[in-house]
Every structure is written in C-alpha cells, then in structure tokens.
C-alpha cells in the first residue's frame, strides 16, 4: 500500500533532519535530490519538499545555479543560538518550577539517572556513545521544562535545540573529533561544561524549588558551554 504524499514528505523531512543534526551530512555539503531520494527510498518529490521546509528552518540553503547545500556552522551563530536558548530556557524553567508536580519531579530524577549512566563526550571515542549522551542530555533539559505551559516558547526551544545539537555533532565528529580527543585542555573543559556534576546541582536546585539558584546554575551551564565551544573553535583554527 502506497503512503500518502504528506506522509512521505514528513518521513523525508525527519530523515534529512536526523542526517543534518548528527552531521552525517556535513556542514556546507551539497545535497543532491536524486541521490537523497534513492538513499531514503522516498523519491525525489518528497525530498524536494523536505528540503524546502528545512531551508525555511535554516538547516539548508539554496544557492543559485548550485542547488541545495547544508548550512554552514559558525562560531558567531553558535553564540547567538546559545544566547537565545538561555533566554527561552530560563523563562520555561521558571514556569516549570511554578507548576511542576510529583510526576514532573519523577521525570527529572529518571532523566538525570539516565544521563549519569551515559558515557560523557570527554570519555569516549565511540560515536554511538556520543549519540546516546546527546539524546539523554537533551532529555534531561527537556524534563526540567516539561511542566511549563507556553506552547510557543517550547516550540522555539525545540527548534533552537535542534540547531545546537547540529553544532555539537559538528564539533565532535569527523576531523574535529580526533582534534578534540587529542587535546587534554579540551577534554578538561568538556568535563566542566558537559559533565554530570553541574547537571546534578541544577537538578537539586530545581527539585528544591529554588528558582533563583536554578536560573543562576542554568546561566553558569550556558557560560561553561559557550567557553568550551570557543576553545574547540580556537583549537580547530590553530590546527593544520
């Protein structure tokens, strides 16, 4: 039984989004519609529709006479995204603390447990481990906010998180991955920015309903992450 065109378009969108976020399609790589349609098994038309949607979300760009290309990853864009994420996540966290119940608290504890069990990026050279940590890290931050009530802020938060995940995988895969694992300084900064210790402090403040401390820790977490990716970028620029 053939799938409806709308279902194929959505499947094509999800297929491409995952490829782009996990940097399986590297930044600035050309996107050949016939090849993508064949690889996905979904055909040319759904793939073209998905690319148009992803262009509107700034994951891909359309260049005259060159077709579609994966959007570039830049340090300036990363800093902009981190700043936007902090504004939105802070507002959602305050809402969640105000409205969260016992089920919300249980979800935070469960997601923290799963994150603590995942191998941190600084401790692995296995890409599957990296994907698992990324999923659980995002799951933890999402669990903190699930009791918030603003649908639009949550939508914006998810969109920004997708872009930040793409930057994360771009930094930790391909040539950048070997540069990162070969730098004791970057590994040290990764442990500070992405390790479980700071996430535990954030969880404890949220569960204690200490809104000001939780927001302060969230701001510190974002600051750690920005400084870490600054160093990753500097390391990449200085490497031959």
UniProtKB/TrEMBL annotation:
Would the keyword Protein transport be found if you checked this record's keyword annotation? Answer: no
Q: Known InterPro entries for this protein? A: GntR_C (IPR011711), TF_FadR/GntR_C (IPR008920), Tscrpt_reg_HTH_GntR (IPR000524), WH-like_DNA-bd_sf (IPR036388), WH_DNA-bd_sf (IPR036390)
Q: Does the keyword Transcription regulation apply?
A: yes
UniProt KW keywords: DNA-binding, Plasmid, Transcription, Transcription regulation
Pfam families recorded for this chain?
A: FCD (PF07729), GntR (PF00392)
Residue ranges constituting the GntR C-terminal domain according to the UniProt record: 80-224
For molecular function, the Gene Ontology terms on record are: DNA binding; DNA-binding transcription factor activity
Entries under SMART domains matching the protein: FCD
According to UniProt, the name of this protein is Transcriptional regulator
């Amino acid at each position: 039984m053939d799938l409806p065109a709308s279902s194929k378009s959505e499947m094509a969108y999800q297929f491409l989004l995952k490829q782009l976020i996990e940097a399986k399609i590297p930044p600035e790589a050309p996107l050949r519609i016939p090849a993508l349609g064949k690889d996905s098994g979904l055909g040319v038309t759904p793939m073209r529709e998905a690319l148009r949607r992803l262009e509107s979300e700034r994951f891909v760009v359309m260049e005259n006479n060159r077709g579609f290309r994966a959007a570039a990853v830049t340090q300036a864009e990363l800093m902009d995204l981190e700043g936007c994420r902090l504004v939105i996540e802070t507002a959602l966290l305050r809402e969640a603390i105000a409205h969260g119940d016992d089920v919300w608290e249980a979800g935070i504890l469960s997601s923290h447990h799963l994150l603590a069990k995942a191998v941190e990026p600084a401790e692995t050279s296995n890409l599957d481990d990296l994907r698992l940590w990324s999923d659980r890290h995002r799951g933890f931050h999402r669990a903190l906010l699930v009791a918030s009530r603003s649908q639009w802020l949550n939508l914006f938060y998810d969109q920004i998180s997708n872009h930040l995940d793409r930057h994360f995988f771009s930094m930790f895969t391909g040539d950048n991955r070997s540069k990162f694992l070969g730098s004791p300084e970057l590994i040290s900064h990764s442990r500070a920015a992405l390790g479980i210790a700071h996430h535990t402090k954030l969880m404890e403040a949220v569960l204690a309903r200490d809104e000001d401390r939780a927001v302060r820790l969230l701001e510190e977490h974002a600051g750690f992450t920005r400084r870490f990716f600054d160093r990753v970028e500097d390391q990449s620029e200085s490497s031959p």
